[in-house]
From TrEMBL:
Keywords: Carbohydrate metabolism, Cellulose degradation, Glycosidase, Hydrolase, Polysaccharide degradation, Signal. GO terms for molecular function: cellulase activity. GO terms for biological process: cellulose catabolic process. Residues 1-19 form the signal peptide. The keyword Cell wall biogenesis/degradation does not apply. The lineage of its organism: Eukaryota, Metazoa, Ecdysozoa, Arthropoda, Chelicerata. It comes from Oppiella nova. InterPro entries: 6-hairpin_glycosidase_sf, 6hp_glycosidase-like_sf, Endo-1-4-beta-glucanase_dom2, Endoglucanase_F_dom3, Glyco_hydro_48F. This is Glycoside hydrolase family protein 48.
Length: 654
């Protein structure tokens, strides 16, 4: 389907939806709750918190941190608000807020001019356990050429990266004070603070992390700041470093695409054109996620010392990997800078609609001369990736990697015989505590994007993948009146068959088992939206009915004064007392005086939690009481509820 036809369909949907449909009204009601200042979703700067509640540990380790994920949902939420009101000013504001606070400015990455595309970074092996860190830098390991750095610099007139850092301490509760333009300003610094946590291999769950600043001037931590906890070196330099979560940047682009389509339908295209150009720029730099970590050649890369560096685009796997990172010295007089991609890709991060938009929509076209071609290739490769990973049942298994064990080790023989363009299958890419593809949410999130791509284009390859996935979901979704139950935890068995393009792919030996179910409102919303987009294009009555029942059930059963949310029992909060590995003899301090040493636990590194109004529930649990119960209002979940209700209303005029 061509873009103009999509616009015509959207225009028709909007004109009817503005007649106060049930589901579009639900969007507006939920939107009002999210924007009610007394409900606490936003900081005074207008930044969306990860959750309204502060005592919250999952990927972020505090509820009033935020993520690039939350910003991307904020952008998408405001795009749909524009669709229903024909006012896109809040969409533009959302992008401006994101750009101001979580995309590092020039002053935060001021030494990019020292970056050399022929020497993008020095190799340091990923280790299996946090206790194996710091990992030594190995300058003798060959790395490849960065093929996009020069054209990005030429296209935008700057050596700086335009990408979201993934994690932000909005209220500066740690006290690093890494605000925009400020390096370790301290507890009194105004504005949100950039931080990081994960950096020590696949077993470093959030409970085992040592939070650190993105700009390390050795003011806090130990004698070398926090650097020598992670990387072994003979001489440590003060430095800045940022990491992007590609699925979030892609979601922001996806939201911008819809804003553009909805604005065209409303005759307001000019109102969003400048923001869409910025979305195209974000997509231009997002291409770093399409490359191997050290720009090594893709395929059969099983020895870090002999696997060669790439010389062009042969280091691109064209998939949305888990991250890309960039950093450099704080000393602008004698600086240096580095960049890395990631050799591991998870199916759950793929976004065919964003790739399609960047390759085909003139309003989002990146400036770089090879960007549209890269995204065209990425779209094709992503669709193939879904096919490679689809189980007999219909669910999608984990992903693939070009760097086994994060250090280009030699994989087991059965994996080297069943590759994806030479990359080996990994059922739990990147992190293992818990396994990264255990959570059903990855299924709903990623397949929602696939379904939206199918709705826009009618691509038969996407439909074939969705036919099988939707059948699996419908067979495993249970309804009892307003009550519903969806998959929650998954287990995997077998490996996919080898794939290198061509004919339709089948995996007779790859299987999924559902081990737990739940009524999680966020994932129910994502699932409902997936089913709705699929049903609208495929004219699938059962999928439409299931989507409607999920939306009605959550709306009826889980209303709160602040949104739509269910109760959660957090048995994992016994890990507040978990030991955090710190090398013997290493000693440091946080800005509030908390000590970092070999006796550290999660809570001793975060004594601020003991002042939280909900701490007593966790403390009682640690002392042998029952697991605490919470009703959380996560920003992404609440936005997902609104977006699913609104999408259903727009699609079916109900």
């Amino acid at each position: 389907m061509q873009v103009p036809l999509v616009v015509a369909l959207i225009a028709c949907a909007i004109s009817q939806a503005l007649g106060a449909g049930v589901y579009t009204q639900r969007f507006l009601d939920q939107y009002s709750k999210i924007h009610n200042a007394s409900n606490g979703y936003f900081s005074k700067e207008g930044i969306p918190y990860h959750s309204v509640e502060t005592l919250m540990v999952e990927a972020p380790d505090h509820g009033h941190e935020t993520t690039s994920e939350a910003y991307s949902y904020y952008i998408w939420l405001e795009a749909m608000h524009g669709a229903l009101t024909k006012d896109f000013s809040s969409f533009n504001t959302a992008w401006e807020t994101m750009e101001k606070y979580i995309i590092p400015g020039h002053q935060d990455q001021a030494t990019n001019s020292f970056y050399h595309a022929d020497k993008p970074a020095t190799f340091a092996a990923e280790q299996d356990l946090p206790s194996q860190y710091p990992s030594p830098m190995e300058s003798g390991v060959p790395v490849g050429h960065d093929p996009i750095a020069d054209e990005l610099k030429s296209s935008y007139g700057s050596p700086d990266i335009y990408g979201m850092h993934w994690l932000q301490d909005v209220d500066n509760i740690y006290g690093f004070g890494n605000a925009p333009g400020v390096c370790e300003g301290g507890p009194g610094t105004a504005g949100p603070s950039m931080i990081n946590t994960f950096q020590r291999g696949p077993q470093e769950s959030v409970w085992r992390t040592i939070p650190q600043p993105t700009c390390d001037s050795f003011k806090y931590g130990g004698k070398n700041g926090f650097l020598d906890l992670y990387v072994g070196d003979s001489n440590y330099a003060k430095q800045w470093k940022f990491t992007a979560a590609p699925d979030a940047d892609a979601r922001a682009i996806q939201g911008a695409y819809w804003a553009g389509q909805w604005a065209k339908a409303a005759g307001k295209e000019a109102e969003v054109s400048a923001t869409l150009a910025k979305a195209g720029k974000l997509g231009d730099y997002l291409r770093y996620a399409l490359f191997d970590k050290y720009f090594k050649k893709i395929g059969q890369c099983f020895n870090r010392n002999t696997c060669p560096g790439g010389t062009g685009k042969d280091s691109a796997h064209y998939l949305l990997s888990w991250y890309y990172s960039w950093g450099g010295a704080t000393d602008t007089s004698g600086g240096w800078a580095w960049r890395i991609g990631d050799g591991s890709a998870h199916f759950g991060y793929q976004n065919p609609l964003a790739a399609y938009a960047l390759a085909n929509d003139p309003a989002l076209k990146p400036k770089s001369p090879t960007a549209a071609d890269d995204w065209t290739k990425s779209l094709e490769r992503q669709l193939e990736f879904y096919a490679y990973l689809q189980t007999q049942e219909g669910a999608f298994a984990g992903g693939a990697t070009n760097t086994w064990n994060g250090r280009y080790d030699s994989p087991p023989a059965n994996l080297t015989a069943n590759t994806f363009y030479g990359m080996v299958y990994d059922w739990e890419p990147v992190y293992h505590d818990p396994p990264s593809n255990q959570w059903y949410g990855m299924q709903a999130w990623s397949t929602d994007r696939l379904a939206q791509y199918y709705y826009v284009t009618g691509d038969a390859k996407a439909k074939a993948l969705l036919d099988k996935w939707v059948a699996w979901v419908l067979a495993n979704t249970k309804f009892d009146g307003d009550k519903y139950e969806l998959p929650s935890s998954l287990e995997w068995k077998g490996i996919p068959a080898s794939y290198s393009g061509g004919a339709p792919h089948v995996n007779p030996d790859l299987h999924v088992t559902i081990t737990e179910s739940s009524a999680d409102v966020g994932i129910a919303a994502s699932t409902a939206r997936t089913l709705a987009y699929y049903a609208a294009k495929a004219n699938h009555t059962e999928a439409k009915t299931a989507a409607k029942k999920l939306l009605d059930g959550m709306w009826t059963l889980y209303q709160t004064g602040k949104g739509v949310a269910g109760k959660e029992v957090r048995k994992d909060y016994n890990r507040f007392a978990e030991k955090v590995y710190v090398p013997s003899g290493w000693t440091g301090k946080y800005p509030n005086g908390d000590t970092i040493d070999s006796t550290a636990t999660f809570i001793t590194l975060r004594s601020f939690y003991k002042k939280d109004k909900d701490w007593a529930k966790v403390e009682a649990y640690l002392n042998g009481g029952p697991a605490p119960e919470f009703t959380y209002h996560r920003f992404w979940q609440q936005a997902d509820v609104a977006l699913a209700q609104g999408a259903y209303g727009l699609l079916f005029n109900e």
